Amino acid sequence: MGTPNVTIDPLTRIEGHLRVECEVTDGKITDAWVSGSLFRGMEMVLKGRAPSDAFYVAQRICGVCPISHGHAATMAAEDAMGVTIPNGARIVRNIIEAAQYLHSHILWFYTLAALDYIDPGKALEANIADTHALAVAAGTTTSNFQAVQDKLKGLVAGGQLSIFSNGWFGHPAYAQDMPPELALIGVAHYLEALEMQAEASRVIAIMGGKFPHFMTSLPGGTAWVPTEEKIDDILFRLMRVRDFVWNTMIPDTLAIAPFYKDALSYGGGHGNFLSWGVFNRESMEMKDRYMPEGAVFSGSLTAETANPEAIKEYVKHSWFTSPTGLNPAEGQTVPEFTKYDVNAQYTWAKAPRYNGKPMEAGPLSRMLVAYLRGVEPVKAVVDKALGALGAPGKPEVLVSLLGRVAARNLETAVVADWSLEWVNELVAAIKGGDVKFFEESTPDAGAGAGMWEAPRGALGHWMTINNGKISNYQICTPSTWNIGGRDDEGVTGVIEQALIGAPCIDPERPMEAARIARSFDP
Amino acid sequence: MAHEDRAFSDQLAARGVSRRDFLKFCGSVAAMLGLSEAMVPTIASAVEQAAASKLTPAVWIDGGLCTGCTESTAQSTNPDVAQIVLDILSMNYMETIMYATGDSAEQALKDTVEKSKGKFIMIYEGAVMTGWEGNALRIAGKTGLDQIMEVAPNAAAIIAVGSCAVDGGWVKANPNPAGGMGIGEYLKSQNVATPVINLPTCPVNPEWIVAMVVDVLFLGKLEDGSILNELDEFGRPKLIFGQTIHDNCPRRGHFENGEFVYKFGSAEEAKGYCLYPVGCKGPQTQTNCPIVRWNNQVSWCVESGSPCIGCGRFNWVDEGAPFLDRFRQIGIGAGSETGGYDPANVALIAGGVVAGALVVHGIGMKAAGRIGEGPATEEMKDHDRKRMKKGGDK
Questions:
Q1: Which one of B93, B99, B110 would you mutate to disrupt binding with A, by most A Cβ within 10 Å of its Cβ?
Q2: Cα A185 from Cα B27, distance rounded (Å)
Q3: How far is A67 from chain B (nearest CA, A)?
Q4: In A6-121, at which residue ranges do the beta strands (DSSP E only) sit?
Q5: How are beta strands A6-8 and A18-25 bridged, if at all?
Q6: In this predicted model, which residue has the larger pLDDT, B50 or B157?
Q7: How many other β-carbons are positioned within 10 Å of the β-carbon of residue B272?
Q8: CA nearest B176 in A: which residue?
Q9: Per-residue DSSP letter, A49
Q10: Cross-chain Cβ contact B11/A164 below 8 Å
């Protein structure tokens, strides 16, 4: 085991708090430790409460993906009660979830990640006419590039850099051959994306009252009843977001990617992938989901059936004294801080394993599983992207930093198309007489699980009910899969392994490490 | 000035914000502060002047959070988050969106605290985590408590955004596993006197943040109480948190008429009836959500068909759960659809037990002669006519 000599704490532009430590030897990362720095205890708060309360409270574990947590909590309650939601409610939930995916992925790429690939300082040197020409040539949208550049110049001249204070301008890990014009396009779209992620979340607000933290996907269905005007409003906004994704976000991705082809050669990690599947079809089966369930193991290009019973969570290196190696259905949460020591305990995250293996969660997992299972729209966009990257027919190149970034953006395009399909499906269902949106139920006892996918990956909620109250609750979040540290055998976690082998050309400013950790949208 | 005005307009135009949108933003600030439309040009000019001169530095500190309040702020449209952090404030530290990371980010925070001592605004999101001597939250190799104590005593003012920052929120709910508490209470325990403005709800509504920032920066002074939106005894701006949701609810008429939703997803919901029987905490919750609404005013909780869960109340999870039960389950009345609940008795039950506001309407319904007779509907209620004659029910 190595010794950390490079630290990123806090890792910014993520949800919540994270510490990343690396051992860097001769410009390469040779070991890594990732520490979840916050414990709140959601599972303990939910004990003893009404099963329907889990929907409202559990989603507040994450302000970026509350829809997915709300849905997983509600599905766990429904599973425990033996309730099947009406078909109309299924479609409504798919649309709300899709809107969150669009919101989350746009926010991630532009607001959180873009500054890792585009040096905003370089945009100052761009020629405006050339920027327009480049935008047209790249097939992306044009903007008032002059005004954006003036704004940047004003910030620099005024000496108040605000959120750009102390950024790594001019870092050597930025693609040195990227033209300043592309940087300016990136900065302009960074600003425009703010409106588009907000537009996507307005769809959630129409159907769920507000975002973050929505109100309507209660156990049994949905409290929101679609009306003609509201469906029309949703459709308009989703079409606007879809246009942005296909005409700006995808061309931007394809324009920037060639400058970072070296990122196809590192950042992959263990190479095991897990998806529980998301977006139900009428069958409500996990294998039937638009994004189907599946587990893919390193070196294999086949998707196996994903089984929640194969999970065990280890705590030897975490600040918990609960028994190690429990399945979440019988899981426990007994926190006890000792001290921060990478050789003993160093994180508030448990280390989940699937059949003993660390599994990556996220869009790359979903897209690989869907690709291997032959989901048509996924195959179409992935094949197109592989062609653009010069690796046709080789999905394995996606197991890398650049592949992970591309997978998230490509998924956005697929989900944007599906979201419109589902609005039409909802209209057709209502016309066909599907006007029921809620199924009553009164739970007394039972146990259930809600296996789902947040934008950032595989998510499970487990609920046990006794005497009408929650007697046990466990959550295994996508970030737990990704940020979890070493297991009891000392095997590294998912981000830890993805960091190992990556370059680190400036240990004072470990840009590549930050990029890799952020690529998981932790 | 004319030149600077144009520069500001250009900045807005660069982000697709028209002059009209900007004035709309000023209008929403005015509304939040209880000002007339006549004040809009004053607010516009104050913001423009600030944009043209040195911006007030601000730091956004993340405590034990879900990042939902930052997310909520990112959904603000007039102004959008870029305007907030580039044109109204100089947001030198904000973990979720700032360019810098790691030591470089920490240096930006340190620089602000040192160079702008007593002059910067601190926005605090999330609960203060006191568990394990503060190790429930660790940042930059120290505890979250250490970070608070380095920053808070040097700030000019603190805005606590969201229920977790105000009083611990869900993090403090029983059994409060990690020692969550509000920033105001924590600072009091440490004898830190920096004034705290409390903006509860889960998450916070960004329009309130913007209104209070504009108020504190441009319109009045917090230290002498000359801000336009005075604070109540809990540090909440009175004009935002002075009335109940029930007072301003668009579904209120249905409450008066005895028209209720008893089942989610029902025909009654499609008609927008009152959600009181399915647990609405609107009568117990003081915020102006029905007026300000959410996500660029597109909707709000009750409009979407959900009862208010009271996320703006103090200790809201323990006070409000189970959320689908009424404030108190009285359990009288028979033959109803939801466990012994008799719609005709709502006013009697509520009037006897709940809030003063409900007593008034109980009397109204009694006067209408409807108690015990079920919710007959008519174009105008007898009690409405009487109230109109008397000039309202106060």
A1: B99
A2: 32
A3: 12
A4: 6-8, 18-25, 28-36
A5: antiparallel
A6: B157
A7: 18
A8: A45
A9: S
A10: no
Q: Specify which residues B350 forms β-bridges with.
A: none
Nearest-by-Cβ selection for A50 from B70, B93, B321: B321
The pTM (predicted TM-score) of the whole model is 0.91
Distance from CA of A164 to the nearest CA of B (A): 5
Query: Does A215 score more than 60 pLDDT?
Result: yes
Closest Cα of chain B to A455: distance in Å? 15
Q: Which of B32-36, B63-67, B215-219 has the lowest mean pLDDT?
A: B32-36
Single-letter amino acid code for the residue at A357: K
Taking CA A492 as the corner, what is the angle to CA A488 and CA A497, rounded to the nearest 5 degrees? Answer: 170
Distance CA B26, CA B77 (A): 12
**C-alpha triplet A340, A345, A350: angle, nearest 5°:** 120
Among the ranges given (A31-35, A240-244, A505-509, B381-385), the one the predictor scored with the smallest mean pLDDT = B381-385
Number of H helices, E strands in chain A: 15, 10
Residues of B whose CB is below 8 A from A342? none
Reported as a single tens digit per residue, the pLDDT across B384-394 is 445 444 443 33
pLDDT for B226: 80
Write down the pLDDT at residue B2: 39
Which two structure tokens, joined as six digits, stand for A483?
Answer: 């940020």
Q: Which token pair is B169?
A: 């929120």
Q: Rounded mean pLDDT of B192-209?
A: 96
| Chain B residues with beta carbon closer than 8 angstroms to that of A57 | 170, 173, 317, 321
Whether A221 and B82 lie within 8 Å, measured CB to CB: no
pLDDT tens, A377-423? Answer: 999 999 999 998 889 999 999 999 999 999 999 999 999 999 999 99
Cα separation, B247 vs B229, in Å, equals 19
Higher-pLDDT residue of B63, B350: B63
Q: Taking 90 as the threshold, does the pLDDT of residue B328 lie above it? A: no
Write down the mean pLDDT value for chain A. 97
Judged by CB atoms closer than 8 Å, whether chains meet at A45 and B96 is answered as no
Q: Which residues are A275's β-sheet partners?
A: A294
Least Cα distance to B58 among A165, A313, A221 occurs for A165
Residue numbers in A near B265 (CB within 8 A): 86, 89, 221-225, 436-438
The ipTM value here is 0.97
Q: Which two tokens stand for residue B9?
A: 């307009």
Per the DSSP assignment, residues forming a β-bridge with B127 are B64
Nearest CA in chain A to B70: A63
Are the C-beta atoms of A6 and A30 separated by less than 8 Å?
Answer: no
A vs B: CB pairs below 8 A: 328
Which residues in chain B have their CB less than 8 angstroms from residue A437's CB? 264-265
Neighbours of A329 (CB within 10 A): 17
Reported as a single tens digit per residue, the pLDDT across B204-219 is 999 999 889 888 888 7
- Kindly determine whether residue B306 and residue A13, on different chains, have CB atoms separated by under 8 Å: no
Q: What sign has the CA pseudo-torsion B185, A65, B59, B213? A: negative
Q: Residue A443 above 60 pLDDT?
A: yes
Chain A residues within 8 A of B269 when measuring between CB atoms = 223, 225
Task: Flag if A150 and B10 touch (Cβ within 8 Å).
Answer: yes
Which of A204, A212, A227 shows the shortest C-beta gap to B270?
A227
Read off the tokens for A20.
């990343």
Q: Which amino acid is at A409?
A: N
CB neighbourhood size of A103 (10 A):
29
| Residues above pLDDT 90, as percent of chain A | 96
Q: How far is CA A517 from CA A35, A56, B303, B371, in A?
A: 11, 30, 39, 63
Both structure tokens of A388: 């653009």
Question: A109-143, pLDDT tens digit by residue?
Answer: 999 999 999 999 999 999 999 999 999 999 999 99
Taking CA–CA distances from B93, the nearest residue in chain A reads A163
Joined tokens for residue B86: 């580039």
